[in-house]
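User: For my dataset I need records formatted as: sequence, then structure tokens, nothing else. Please produce one.
Assistant:
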Amino acid sequence: MPRKTSSEREQFWRRHIEQQRASRLSIRGYCHRHGLHEHSFYSWRRAIAARDRRGKPAPPQPLAAPAFLPVAVVDGPARLHDSLIEIRLVDGRRVRIRAGCDRALLADVLAILHAATKPEERPC
């Protein structure tokens, strides 16, 4: 996954700072709920406030939509019953499938994961 630009990271943190204010949660509670480091939250809040005081916020960057690649499932003899297929999703999650798995179930799982994928990603 390519590293985010400074502008993308700033937009990420601007969204979280605004969402934290609107949530009325403490910063600690908000960071815990969203898997963010509290120290990073405070650092970015300070940096963004300083940029805003100088009147130079970073230009907004459009969020890239998650990319899914087409996959064709074909019938064929499985050489090893223990063979394993791993699908790595854009957000880093992995789905591991053993030979002979139910195709309808796999399609349902992938559809659910696709629907649950959010464009927002944690920063590096």
